[in-house]
Amino acid sequence: MTAPTVNPTVSLAVSAWTQPFFHNALLAGTFIALAAGLVGFFLVLRAQVFTGDALSHVAFTGAMAALAAGYDLRLGLFVSCVLVGLLLGGIGRRGKADDVVIGSAFAWILGLGSFFLTLYTASASGMGNGGAGTSVLFGSIFGLDGGQTTVAVVIALVVTALVLLIARPLLFATLDENVAAARGVPVKALGLGFLALVGLTAGEATQAVGSLLLLGLLAAPAGAALRMTQRPFVGLALAGGLAVAEMWAGLAAAAWIPQCPPSFGIMAAATLVYAATYLPRPAGRAGRAAAAGA
C-alpha cells in the first residue's frame, strides 16, 4: 500500500506558517496595517495623498542616509519621515502640506536618496550588504526579528491610539476647517500632529511593503472604505479592517506561492478590493420602489 502523496505547495505553505519569521510578519503586519488604514482614511479624506507619496520617497532617502552614516535604517526612516512631514505642514496653510512645495522637493528628495545609496554601497559597511536598498524599496517584512517586531507593534499601537484620540476634532477640521477654527479647534496643531503620525506610519509601513508601494497601503483601503460608506466613523473602522485583511491575504499568498513577494501579495489584495468597489451593486428597496413607480 503506497503512502498518500502530499502536495508540495501545501507542504511549503504549512511549513512557512509554522516558522518564527512568519509569526513575526503576521504580528507586525497586522498592527502596521491597522495604523496605515486609520491614518490613510484621514489622508484621503483631507486630500493629502500627494503628501503620502512624497513621504514614501523621504522614507527611502532617510533610510539610505542612516545606513551611509552607520546607523540603523529604522532611525533614518522614522526621523526623516516625521521631520519632513512636520516641515511640509509648517510651510503649508493650517498644517496642510502644499502641493507646490511637495512637487518642488519631490525629485530632489529621490535624487538625494540615490546619492546616499551610492555612498552606502561604496562604504566598507555596505560592501557586503548591497540588498539593503532593495529591501527599503520593496519591503522586508519576512526579515523582521523579534525585537524589530516588538518595536513595530508598539509604534503602530501608539499611532492607532493617537489617531482615535484626535479622530473627532480632526474630522471636524477636515470637513469644515473655518467653522472648526471659529469654534476653537486648534486646526493647525491638529494638522501638524496628523502629519507627524503620517510620518511615523510611513516609516512603519516601509518595512512591510517598501517605500515604492507605501502609498498603496495608505490609500487603497481608505479609498475603498470611502466608496463603501458615507458615514465617517464607519469608514474609519472599515479602512482599518480592510487594511488588516489585505495584509493577511498578502502574507497568506506569499506563504502559498514562494515566488510571490509579500509586498506584491498585499498590494494585489488591496488593489482587488478597491477595484471591486466599482462593480455594479444590486438596487436596494428604495431603488426598486423608485423604478416600479416610474
Describe this structure as you would to a colleague.
It is a multi-pass membrane protein. One of its GO terms (cellular component) is ATP-binding cassette (ABC) transporter complex. Pfam families: ABC-3. By secondary structure, the protein is an all-alpha fold. The protein has a domain at 19-123 and 131-212: ABC transporter involved in vitamin B12 uptake, BtuC (Orthogonal Bundle), CATH 1.10.3470. It has 13 helices and no strands. The N and C termini lie far apart (70 Å).
How is this fold's topology laid out?
Blueprint: H1 8-17, H2 20-45, H3 49-68, H4 73-91, H5 99-122, H6 132-138, H7 146-175, H8 177-182, H9 187-209, H10 214-228, H11 232-256, H12 262-276, H13 285-293
Pfam family, one: ABC-3
Organism: Streptacidiphilus fuscans
Protein name: Metal ABC transporter permease
Please identify the structural class as seen in this structure. Answer: mainly alpha
Question: How many helical elements?
Answer: 13
Number of strands: 0
What characteristic shape results from the CA principal axes?
A: globular
Task: Specify the CATH class of one domain.
Answer: Mainly Alpha
- At CATH level 3, the topology of one domain is ABC transporter involved in vitamin B12 uptake, BtuC
- Percentage of residues assigned to helices: over 70%
- The CATH homologous superfamily of one domain is termed ABC transporter involved in vitamin B12 uptake, BtuC
For the largest beta-sheet, the strand count, sense and barrel status come to: none
Oligomer: single chain
Distance between the termini: 70 Å
Stretches where pLDDT is under 50 for at least 5 consecutive residues are 1-12, 285-294
CATH architecture of one domain: Orthogonal Bundle
Q: Give helix and strand order, one letter per element, not per position.
A: HHHHHHHHHHHHH
Q: Kindly report the average pLDDT value.
A: 82
Protein name: Metal ABC transporter permease
Membrane topology: Multi-pass membrane protein
GO cellular component, one term: ATP-binding cassette (ABC) transporter complex
Organism: Streptacidiphilus fuscans
